[in-house]
Design a protein that fits this description.
It is a single chain. This protein has 166 residues and is an alpha+beta fold. It contains four helices and ten strands. It has one domain: Molybdopterin biosynthesis MoaE subunit (Aldehyde Oxidoreductase, domain 3), CATH 3.90.1170.40. The strands form three sheets. The protein has a four-stranded mixed β-sheet with strand order 1-6-8-2, sandwiched between helices. Strands 7-5-9-10 form a four-stranded antiparallel β-sheet, with no helix packed on it. A hairpin with a 2-residue loop joins strand 3 and strand 4. Helix 3 crosses helix 4. The radius of gyration is 16 Å and the shape is elongated. The relative contact order is 0.22.
């Protein structure tokens, strides 16, 4: 009998510990054969210009619900043992972690695909607004066409771009 999936979504101001969070997905589980993690880190430049910080804003409650619905979609598409999404908000300095996605499955293809699916969503459609702070002032970050193209791969019916096991 398969163990139930461990699902966690957090939107928080505080930094997080990637190792501690991913240990939650695998502790006591013998059905996990693959753990894929991605951590987004604030870069110190944008388009070659130094930045002082990023400020991320969101609608509390709505952001969590939206992310949870996409994690649930990933769990429907792939046989996941678990998934964690953490996204920070507030002022984030270069070198600090912004967000993380971790997916666990029996097989690597499902873990990689689910992580890619969740990253594409978070980058293009999650309800966060990002402002970059440079020496010359602050500006809102616009969506990027290459991020939208990456996300478009996952818009077909469930199963069309999915690979469950390898």
């Amino acid at each position: 009998m398969a163990m139930p999936a461990t699902i966690s979504v957090k939107v928080q101001r505080e930094p997080f510990d990637v190792s501690a969070e991913t240990a939650l997905l695998t502790r006591g589980r013998t059905d996990v054969g693959a753990l894929v993690t991605f951590t987004g880190i604030c870069r110190g430049d944008e388009n070659g210009q130094p930045i002082a910080a990023l400020t991320l804003e969101h609608y509390p409650g709505m952001a969590e619900a939206e992310i949870e619905s996409h994690v649930a979609e990933a769990a429907r598409r792939w046989p996941l043992a678990g998934a964690i999404v953490i996204h920070r908000y507030g002022r984030i300095a270069p070198g600090e972690d912004i967000m993380m996605v971790a997916t666990a499955s029996s097989h690597r293809a499902a873990a990689f695909a689910a992580a890619d699916f969740l990253m594409a969503y978070l980058k293009t459609r999650a309800p966060f607004w990002k402002q970059v702070e440079k020496a010359g002032g602050k500006s809102w970050v616009e969506a990027k066409a290459d991020d939208d193209a990456a996300a478009a791969r996952w818009t077909g019916p469930a199963g069309s771009n999915d690979q469950a096991a390898e």
